[in-house]
Amino acid sequence: MTTELDLGSIRHAPKVLLHDHLDGGLRPDTVLELAERAGYRELPADEPVALADWFRTAAHSGSLERYLQPFAHTVAVMQTAEALHRVAYECVRDLAADAVVYAEVRFAPELHLAAGLTLPQVVEAVLAGFAAGQQDAAAAGTPIVVRTLVTAMRHAARSLDIAELAIDYRDRGVCGFDIAGAEAGHPPTRHLDAFEHIREYNGHSTIHAGEAFGLPSIHEALAFCGADRLGHGVRIVDDITEAADGGQRLGRLAALVRDNRVPLELCPSSNVQTGAVPSFAEHPFDLLARLRFRVTVNTDNRLMSDTSMSREMLRLVETFGYGWADLQRFTINAMKSAFYPFDQRLALIDDVIKPRYAVLIGG
């Protein structure tokens, strides 16, 4: 007998998260406490519920540029090693409590230098927080593996520095390199030296592409920068048209993405907030899944979107009628796509994900 598919049962299902921003997932009470310690007086609310509601409302802006504006508040309270450690630690514990068994959490080290920290000090504080969180999560019976992606801001000029960090710390918990920020006017090819450094040292990269900007952003990310995955990539749907027989015709770029199994780090709730798609019901997630693209489910920014992996999965279930087998497929898609050694990916799939889903599917 299959376990009933609701939020409570989904919370027990193992999950894999590839696209989550550290500065977009703080607990509201933590933002308030860190702001008080830092003497930061610019928060728009002074109690957790109202603050959480403000972040969600402000982020639901209809444009990526406006969606990014509330991050000024979270970044402002993440300027010390202690604050970064705490936020990283709580991130791990929150994900583990939601039955996430593997996560790659990204952040931009260059945004955390205002109080005098160096880039290495920023990375080390976050990695220490992740390590402590994993240790305590395991002791609590909710083991999780958390690795990090270091992100360069695409409008700035520090991408090579950040790429060097990715390589320098890759044996200490940093699993790859990313660029993020407003896409329009800031193509990934402006950062070719950073991506060449990553490729020279056999590193991994993912690029925010095909979110606010269309197919050219995706093309550059793959053809020139050599991205292993696409952060969002939702606009690949622009290269899919209806065929004369009522089916779907893939353009050359869409075919390349599907045929090469390029993972799409889809973030449905966030995509609605930024205006990348009109509504959850109109999100191309289901079309891409039916066409057998390698789709994955992600949160993007848990505070800004008032979401979790369980909630994202439930919304997909309620919108598109998915069952346990579908959720298992999306989870395995993500684990296959992780920047993690193959044998360890396989162990999580065979020893954790499949057995736990078998119980849910079989009741």
From TrEMBL:
Catalysis: reaction(s): adenosine + H2O + H(+) = inosine + NH4(+); 2'-deoxyadenosine + H2O + H(+) = 2'-deoxyinosine + NH4(+)
GO CC entries: cytosol
GO molecular function, one term: adenosine deaminase activity
Binding site for Zn(2+): 19, 21, 208, 300
Cofactor binding note of this UniProt entry: Binds 1 zinc ion per subunit.
Binding, substrate: 21, 23, 181
InterPro entries: A_deaminase, A_deaminase_dom, Ado/ade_deaminase, Metal_Hydrolase
Reported function: Catalyzes the hydrolytic deamination of adenosine and 2-deoxyadenosine.
Family stated for the protein in its record: Belongs to the metallo-dependent hydrolases superfamily. Adenosine and AMP deaminases family. Adenosine deaminase subfamily.
The protein, known as: Adenosine deaminase
Biological source species: Mycolicibacterium fallax (Mycobacterium fallax)
Chain's gene name: add
